[in-house]
Fold this sequence. Notes:
Strand content: 5-15%
CATH superfamily: Glutaredoxin
Radius of gyration: 15 Å
Helix content: 25-40%
Distance between the termini: 31 Å
CATH class: Alpha Beta
Shape: globular
Number of strands: 4
Amino acid sequence: MAMIVFYEKPGCMNNTRQKQLLAQSGHDVVALDIRAQGWSPETLRPFFHGVPVAEWFNRAAPRIKSGAVVPEAMAAAEALAEMCLDPLLIRRPLMESGGRRMAGFDEEAVNAWIGLTPVSEPISETCPRSDGMCSVPGRGN
């Protein structure tokens, strides 16, 4: 099975379920805090290969929900610069394994890439909390 570097926001309920699915499928997951990585445009860009700029963003990020950041109005260079300054803007999780990188958790794409054990219901990629912070109660995230 694969070793996956999984960039997440610790405490995010969806990222927790996604990591569990990967582990249940036999993969080794190394989870890292997406906010603590010191991203640059050069290190971040490969996660979005072939994906339109507007889809690079975490739609639950506070700055997007407030209208301060409008993904559809951004060029790639501007989007990357903003994400490097504010990693909460980045669509999560970012994953890398075997030289390939991916943003978001599209179960079909992940299954085609590394294989997943089927689950009874799909795992959501969007934060269920209205404030977009997606943390586990009592963790203070």
